[in-house]
Design brief:
Structural class: mainly alpha
Keywords: Chaperone, Nickel insertion
Order of helices and strands: HHHHHHHHHHH
CATH class: Mainly Alpha
CATH superfamily: Urease accessory protein UreF
InterPro entries: UreF, UreF_sf
Largest sheet: none
Shape: globular
Pfam family, one: UreF
Protein name: Urease accessory protein
Number of domains: 1
CATH architecture: Orthogonal Bundle
Oligomer: single chain
Radius of gyration: 16 Å
Length: 227
């Protein structure tokens, strides 16, 4: 087992685009949006719309899963997974989240194979969603729940921006500014997520157009990202 890193360094690690769930492998739904006609001017509004729909759902679920991993809640991972599925109407989005989650769980099992939280997730949900796998990995690395909440939001936002640089004629300097411009809203969503007390408190929010684009993306044979 590798040495235990500083929690701050671990949080940076989990936002690294080189990870199995990183931005090199998925676009946070931006690629199908661009195919459908979204242009460069629409990327930042898209980022914010995703933050306040998908992001709020996933961040609240991640915080709850983190508490389970830390022994502070006895909800159990399967119930959280069921709650996420119920709030994700698109089968394509559910599948994409589980692909990312499976990659994150593989990383967790490599870095912290003896972590009780990692072992329990492997036993009960071998194909977890991204927020649950991210939460368990963060807990195993000593990352706190507020750091996790910010990480969950930031990782999704930076995935949108990273994909935009590959898909559209965008100035990287401007794209970097989008993340800074969204910082206040990222912090607000992260803070709100800490108020979750049970699976019933996970927001039930939907983005129908994003779901439609995600479903269409699964039928394409030529694409840069899995989602």
């Amino acid at each position: 087992m590798l040495p235990v890193p500083d929690a701050g360094v671990a949080a940076f690690l989990l936002a690294d685009s080189r990870l199995p769930s990183g931005a090199y492998s998925h676009s946070a739904g931006l690629e199908p949006a661009v195919i459908a006609g979204l242009d460069a001017d629409g990327v930042y509004p898209y980022l914010l719309a995703r933050l306040h729909t998908v992001g709020r759902v996933e961040t609240a679920a991640a915080v709850l899963a983190h508490r389970v991993a830390c022994g502070l809640d006895n909800t159990g991972y399967p119930r959280i997974e069921a709650a996420i599925d119920a709030r994700t109407p698109s089968a394509a989005q559910r599948d994409a989240s589980r692909r990312l989650g499976r990659g994150m769980l593989r990383l967790a099992s490599k870095l912290r194979p003896d972590s009780p939280a990692v072992v329990e997730l492997q036993r009960t949900v071998p194909r977890p969603t991204r927020p649950v796998a991210l939460a368990v990995t963060a807990a195993a690395l000593g990352v706190g729940e507020l750091q996790l909440a910010r990480l969950c939001c930031y990782d999704d936002a930076q995935s949108v921006v990273a994909a935009a640089l590959k898909l559209l004629p965008i100035d990287p300097m401007e794209a970097t500014g989008w993340i800074l411009a969204a910082a206040g809203e990222i912090d607000a969503v992260a803070a709100e997520s800490l108020l979750v007390g049970s699976v019933d408190d996970i927001p039930a929010l939907s983005a129908p157009l994003m779901e439609h684009w995600a479903e269409n993306h699964t039928t394409r044979t030529r694409r840069l990202f899995v989602a």
